[in-house]
Amino acid sequence: MTITVDFVNHTKHRIAREVIVAIVRETLRRVMSKAAAKKTIAVSIALVAPSVIRGVNRQYRGRDRVTDVISFGSGMSRHLLLRKKSASIDIGDLLLCYDYIKKSATIDGVSARVEFAYVLSHGILHLLGYRHSKEMFAIQDAVSQKFSTLRRTKA
């Protein structure tokens, strides 16, 4: 499976693109079938300020508050996405708010690295049609634990 990540950082936080790609790759590795081996999976990710994500949350979800991640996907499950005949599948777009993620990490008593991996994995899973479930949270936990020792997500 080839993974294409279009990453744009609209904040002052320095998040290495390689870290983003690695988290996306690990999440996809855990949930995609062998049918994905010959496909190119594309995703767009933007790191945005709290005011931006709040505005998007208000406009598209009717919730006037800052959040950690917002996903804009096709609404199709990973199984339906893989049935597409094209060699390339665009799973959608994610907006992430690192300021909110960092604050949540403090509240949850984990590092910002772990929380960032957890939230990014969460967004990817939503793009693949996952709903909140024990399975979804277990995947996020496994992905975030794998990235708990990364040192390149300085804020």
User: What is the number of E strands?
Assistant: 4
The neighbouring-strand order within the major sheet is 1-2-4-3
- Main sheet, how many strands, which sense, barrel? 4 strands, mixed
What structural class do you assign from the helix and strand content?
alpha/beta
**Name given to the CATH homologous superfamily:** Metalloproteases ("zincins"), catalytic domain
Q: Structurally, how many domains make up the residues?
A: 1
Strand residues, percent = 15-25%
Q: What is the helix fraction of residues, given as a range? A: 40-55%
CATH topology: Collagenase (Catalytic Domain)
Task: Please report the first level of CATH classification, the CATH class.
Answer: Alpha Beta
Specify the overall morphology. Answer: globular
Which helices and strands appear, and what pairs or packs with what?
Blueprint: E1 2-9, H1 17-31, E2 40-47, H2 50-61, E3 69-73, H3 78-83, E4 88-96, H4 98-108, H5 112-127, H6 134-146
Main features:
155 residues, alpha/beta, Collagenase (Catalytic Domain), four-stranded mixed sheet, globular
Describe the structure.
Helices cover 47% and strands 19% of the residues. It is an alpha/beta fold and 155 residues long. Strands 1-2-4-3 form a four-stranded mixed β-sheet, sandwiched between helices. α1 (17-31) packs across α5 (112-127), α1 crosses α6 (134-146) and α4 (98-108) packs across α5. Residues 151-155 have low confidence and may be disordered.
In short:
This protein has 155 residues and is an alpha/beta fold.
